[in-house]
Amino acid sequence: MRSPAAEHQQHAVPESSEAATRETSSADTAWLETELLAVKDTIELTDGLDGRPLLFDSDTGKYVAVSKAGTVILTLLDGQTTARDVVRRVASPSADPARAETAVVRFLTELRQAGVLTLEPQDETRRERVLKYSLRQRMPRKPLTRSVHILLEPVAKVLQKLPVPAVVGMWIVLTVAGLSTAGYALATRSLPDYTVWSGIAALLLMLQIAVHELAHALVCQSLRVPVREAGITLMLYVMPVAYVDRTDAYRVRGRAPRALIALAGPMSDAIWAGATALVLLHTSGAVHDIAGALLQLQVLLMIVNLNPLLPSDGYHALESAMGSVNLRGRSFAFLVHMVTRAPLPSHLLVSGKLKRAGYCAFGVLCACYGVFMVGVVLTWWWHLIEGLLG
User: With bands split at pLDDT 50, 70 and 90, how would you rate the model's confidence at 57?
Assistant: First the structure.
């Protein structure tokens, strides 16, 4: 299911644009003249998807994306210069001084608010808090274990020694075989409502979901991406789903490996669906009925999980294939900006009209579908509670 990551990454990108001069924060700016700026000792500069620079805070475990121009500015923050000093040092004679100053000041302000600098972040307005929340897309979650890596390390070591194309190819073959077998079973066998066996099928599905999450974690560990924790989260605040925290996948530079991390769970589900279909095709009686009920649940799980309008595996795979980061968060940030006029972060200010329209359209689709799903889940919960009480 969902593998939280996006909420751990923020952005700070110095850019020059006319929009940057129009959208400014209401926070106090006196510190720009007086405070000596320095990067915290816990900050590490690394790179991630497509070689993009990242700042990693070993104290909080959060990532902050910066542009390559931003890394140049970071080298000037030695604890002996103010923001105005930085502006003077990076100013180009051919550039518009006002626009350059606005861009650099905004970048430094965002670094401070992201917790990168030794200065404490400033208090934010309500509009700024709403926009930041829309970017992070954080859902309530309950960690259950932080020891997944111990369980999977022996298997990951074996996989690391095998040829990657062979392992991925075998996994794809098994996935296609599983989907084909499941499709054949669904097409050739009548599947009545197996209400008597739904409970047993649901318990088996819970075990499959655990394997699903372990598949995500195993690919992460094979790519030497640590899995921080695993647990339960509330997708859209009403749908309890399992998760593994793959925040450190930001360090994976290639799009294909990141997409494979996201698709590992659904591929595992497809293989299990194929195994269930084989049981359905070759058994009768109670076992046949349980397999039929389970197969229906498995197909439903894959459809929901691969839907890119939900913050689940299909969305993360699409995002990785596009080379994008936090597509949902950016889309909702534009919608919040349109409604509240909260200032956009600098990495969104440079988006052209067509790109902004695309973000807004995707955000509206996600919001509408999310409202629909919340209604469906709440209705299901209501009927379940009525059945238990009645």
Answer: very high
